Every structure is written in C-alpha cells, then in structure tokens.
C-alpha cells in the first residue's frame, strides 16, 4: 500500500479491487518488461562471473594452470623403428667374433681399422647421423644410449668375415648418444651387393657398458639409402659392380625393407660424389617391448657378398639374407 493506493513492485494497480493478474494488458506488459530487465542484469552478472572463471583480462594473472601444447615428438607422433635381422656379419658375438670387446671400437670415424691393422676402406665419403628417441618417455632423446653401426665396403665386403679382409675391422664403430639423442659416424658410401638394397646396420644398447652383451640390445635395425644418391655414387669409379645389382632391386623387393618399402628406415641423403654425402635417420624405440629380431635367421646367408665365403657358423643358403 502506498499513499496513492495499492501498488505492485512500486507500480500503482490500475484496478485496486482486482487481483494483480487482472490489472489489464498495459499493466502486464510493464511487468514483463521489468522482469526482462532484471533477468538481463542477472545474466550479465553471471556472464561476467563465467568469464572470470574461464580466463583473465589484459594485465590480470590467472590462477589456472596453462594448458601445455603437445611436444613435437610425443609417443603418439612416433612409430617404432622396425626390428630387423643383424645379418650374417654382425661381429657382436652372436655369430663368431665380437669386435665390441675390443679397445678402440668407440669412435666416430670408422673408415680405418684399429688395433693391429690400419687399412682404410676406400669410397665416396659418407656421414650418417642417427637420432635415438624413447617412445615410452614422450619421445625424449635417449641420452647416453650406445649405438653400434656396421656396413659393407665399396666392394660389398664385410670386415672380419669376407675373404681377404678377415683381419680388418673397418666400417664398424660405437658412438654414445648426446643430449639430443644423436650419434654420428664418418664412413664411406656402401656398395649394393646381390640381393640387398644399400643399407647400414645398427644396434642400440641402453648404455656403453652394455655393448659387450648382445642380450641387452634395445633394438636391431637397418638404415636404407635413397635410390637417387645410390645411382649417382655408383656411376663413379670403384662402384661399377653396384650398378647392375641395384638395377635388379627395389625397396619393395628387398628381403628386409620389403615389408613396408622401408618407409620408416629410408634416410634422406644430401651431397655429391665430390663433397660426399650425409644421411640422417630418426630412430624411435619402444623400450617397454621386447625386441623381436636381432640374430641372423636360420637358413639363408649364403656366399659372402662380393665373393667372400661365409664364416664358420654363418647361415647357409642360396642368397644373402639380411646381410
């Protein structure tokens, strides 16, 4: 009640003797308008509260933890490097000699033998870099991992095994991964011998102290080299026999890379025969799983590449298998 008569929400009733709902259209419209303004006001307060909860204005610090964007090398981005045979000529103790027991095996430049011999493998200069990543640990670099790499020479022969170079240990070496998970080897461009696409073998161990025990390998795989670089190198003096061998192969017909065409093992290469070539490959490893390959398979192996005979205990067969 007001001095001027009955009222509702501060507004005089048009028909004081009637209920509020019977005050007429004009009164009802006024009431509706007042409610909308109140709701709009309350909505504005709620909206501002919601904005305050979700974010901050310029110059205001939020108490919420910022969302972190995924790393460029998270486990979901990476595919584990395929496990492959270490072939008939590993010299890791699984097939005769173990060069990993010898002083001098830890080196970057693997072109020459070490120990009692200083012979040097000839060929186009070739540097290759492997970056080892741990899939289980969000793709982080495997700092301190030891990588043993080996390959054939310009003639398709393997030191310590092939006829005439049993006393040599060139084109074999170990490097320890740096803070970025990288190892680098200085070598010569390998040949293409019958039955195998040009490649480099490697094994990854958890640390340098583990390299003398093949059972501690985390991964055994191979790096494939791109066809264009191979063709260019094989057109130079000393690589003549590789020309015909490469012409009979593709990555899909190779007995190692053929499963997927080497999609995860093909290393891009840059350079020229005069300046030498550089190849780089990322090597993701799933350390939570057991390696599925490593030692040379039973059967296969055959005559050593480049005409050498297989060593005692090497697999036998008609064609090289996983060399």
Automatic annotation (TrEMBL):
Any one GO molecular-function label of the UniProt entry: oxidoreductase activity, acting on single donors with incorporation of molecular oxygen, incorporation of two atoms of oxygen
Residue span, Intradiol ring-cleavage dioxygenases domain: 121-196
InterPro entries: Intradiol_dOase_C, Intradiol_dOase_core
Protein name: 3,4-dioxygenase subunit beta
Record's keyword terms, sorted: Dioxygenase, Oxidoreductase
Biased composition (Low complexity): 66-76
SUPFAM superfamilies given in the database record: Aromatic compound dioxygenase (SSF49482)
Region annotation (Disordered) ranges: 57-98, 282-323
Comp. bias regions, Gly residues: 297-310
């Amino acid at each position: 009640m007001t001095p001027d008569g009955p009222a509702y929400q501060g507004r005089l009733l048009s028909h004081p003797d009637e209920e509020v709902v019977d005050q007429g259209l004009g009164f009802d419209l006024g009431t509706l308008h007042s409610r909308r303004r109140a709701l709009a006001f309350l909505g504005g307060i709620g909206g501002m509260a919601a904005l305050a909860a979700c974010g901050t204005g310029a110059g205001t610090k939020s108490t919420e933890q910022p969302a972190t964007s995924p790393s460029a090398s998270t486990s979901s981005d990476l595919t584990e490097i395929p496990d492959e045979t270490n072939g008939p000529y590993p010299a890791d103790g699984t097939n005769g000699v173990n060069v990993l027991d010898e002083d001098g095996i830890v080196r970057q430049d693997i072109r020459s033998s070490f120990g009692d011999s200083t012979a040097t493998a000839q060929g186009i200069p070739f540097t290759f870099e492997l970056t080892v990543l741990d899939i289980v640990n969000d793709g982080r670099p495997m700092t301190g991992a030891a990588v043993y790499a080996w390959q054939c020479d310009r003639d398709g022969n393997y030191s310590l095994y092939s006829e005439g170079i049993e006393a040599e240990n060139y084109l074999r070496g170990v490097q320890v991964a740096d803070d970025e998970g990288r190892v680098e080897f200085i070598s010569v461009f390998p040949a293409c011998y019958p039955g195998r696409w040009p490649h480099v073998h490697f094994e990854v161990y958890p640390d340098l102290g583990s390299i003398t025990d093949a059972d501690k390998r985390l991964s055994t795989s191979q790096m494939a080299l791109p066809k264009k670089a191979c063709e260019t190198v094989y057109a130079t003096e000393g690589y003549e026999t590789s020309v015909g061998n490469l012409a009979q192969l593709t990555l899909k017909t190779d007995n190692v890379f053929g499963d997927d065409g080497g999609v995860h093992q093909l290393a891009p290469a840059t350079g020229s025969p005069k300046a030498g070539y550089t190849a780089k490959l990322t090597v993701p490893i799933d350390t939570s799983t057991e390696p599925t390959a490593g030692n040379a398979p039973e059967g296969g192996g055959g005559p050593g590449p480049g005409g050498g005979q297989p060593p005692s205990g090497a697999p036998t067969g008609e064609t090289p298998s996983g060399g």
